[in-house]
Design goal:
The complex is a heterodimer of chains A (72) and B (321).
Chain A (H helix, E strand, L loop, with lengths): L1 H11 L6 H5 L3 H9 L1 H4 L3 H11 L18
Chain B lengths: L7 H15 L3 H7 L1 H8 L8 H21 L7 H20 L8 H28 L8 H26 L4 H28 L19 H9 L2 H15 L3 H13 L2 H23 L3 H12 L3 H8 L1 H5 L4
Classes of the chains: A mainly alpha (72), B mainly alpha (321).
């Protein structure tokens, strides 16, 4: 995922990703970038504005039955 | 519990934790049914997978209790919760043993039990990496984060998906497809969890009054540590330090700095890649379409943002100021 990270950073800065990074992306990472091209083409703040309206993702990682800390 | 002559107060405490966990609805409940879903998907009788679902719930609950103690999220009874988790893990193995009542051959029960032990061990190793990274200045890079998440969360989900299909008779590449589906589902949930910690901390507001502070093992932070220049990285670390001291404005500023670096887009891309992996794995499993659809619906529900930005790019285009 390090290559994917460097590619996203370059695209965010309006730079071309390096061929070396593009060459080591997994097929799934390439497909992911393709699918999110509208996202990477926008400024990060624009994307954040749209995503803010969607709200949180799911929190299904584990059941949460234990009593949590209470505010003092 | 009664057969084991367990101390009644201990039994009641463990059961109260289980009852609360079992009462969870929505996606939580569907995740508990993961072994039954993969069993049905491969043509088995999901009713026979009930002991596996019970074992799966017990293991997740034990892991959660330990995680709460390790993260300092409990304000009382920490020793009791550690002790309860020990019992829950043993109950999980007893539940696997109950497959005997479903006429599952003993060698298969032994294999499923051994795989559960290996998954728990691998998960504990991933948790160790996660806890260690939180105290290291360098933290994890995205590749390190992925390895940690695949161990910590992916290994247990992989077992749950694998065990149901194994019981239904899946073998070879098709069984491996179910296993990989579970692993990717577990990693995707970890991606979603890290996303919430930075951009939707209100998601856990009803569970914890304190706002979680993204630490080194967070995927967004792993990205920032890899791509940011020294000045930005130092500024981000200082902001997070202030946020840990209770400065809410510093936390907001840190989230904005991560956004400006492209971390949100990266986390979405990482989630999308896991989603692709999972879809391909399920396709390799070649199960019954009606149950495959249910497993895909479970997968799609983890990160709704993925569907929205991928399927409706006009929403992003229209947002241009």
């Amino acid at each position: 995922m390090n290559a994917l990270a460097r590619i996203v950073r370059n695209l965010t800065l309006g730079r071309e990703p390096s061929q070396a990074d593009l060459g080591i992306l997994s097929p799934q990472e390439s497909a992911a970038l393709q699918k999110l091209q509208a996202c990477v083409a926008r400024s990060p703040r624009d994307v954040a504005g749209v995503l803010a309206a969607i709200g949180p993702q799911e929190i299904w990682l584990s059941p949460t039955p234990a009593p949590k800390q209470t505010a003092c | 519990m009664t057969e084991c002559r367990v101390e009644p107060a201990y039994g009641a405490f463990v059961l109260s934790l289980l009852e609360r966990a079992a009462a969870e609805g929505g996606g939580q409940r569907t995740i508990t049914l993961l072994p039954a879903l993969t069993c049905a998907c491969h043509g088995g009788d999901p009713g026979r997978a009930v002991p596996l679902c019970a074992a799966w719930l017990l293991v997740r609950l034990a892991a959660k209790l330990l995680d709460d103690v390790e993260d300092g999220d409990l304000d009382r009874d920490q020793p009791l919760h550690v002790n309860a988790s020990t019992g829950l893990l043993e109950l999980a193995h007893l539940s696997v043993g109950a497959l005997d009542h479903e006429a599952v051959p003993q060698p298969r029960i032994a294999l499923i039990g051994a795989k559960l032990s290996r998954a728990v061990l691998r998960s504990a190793g991933g948790q160790h990496r996660d806890l260690s990274a939180a105290t290291e200045a360098a933290g994890l890079d995205p590749d390190g984060w992925l390895a940690m998440a695949a161990a910590k969360s992916g290994a247990l989900f992989a077992w749950a998906a694998w065990a149901g299909a194994e019981m239904a008779g899946a073998r070879g590449a098709r069984l491996e497809g179910y296993r990989r589906f579970g692993e990717c589902l577990g990693v995707l949930l970890q991606v979603a969890d890290d996303y919430n910690d930075v951009w939707a901390p209100e998601a856990e507001a009803h569970l914890r009054p304190d706002v979680p502070i993204p630490s080194a093992p967070n995927l967004a932070m792993a990205y920032a540590r890899l791509v940011a220049d020294d000045v930005s990285r130092r500024r981000l670390d200082e902001g997070l330090q202030r946020a840990r001291g209770g400065d809410r404005d510093a936390l907001t500023a840190a989230a904005e700095a991560l956004t400006d670096l492209g971390a949100q887009t990266f986390v979405l891309a990482a989630g999308q890649a896991q989603h692709h992996h999972a879809v391909e794995a399920l396709s390799d499993a070649g199960g019954r379409p009606e149950f495959e659809r249910q497993l895909l619906a479970l997968l799609d529900g983890v990160m709704p943002a993925l569907q929205i930005v991928a399927d409706a790019p006009t929403a992003l285009k229209d947002s241009a100021v």
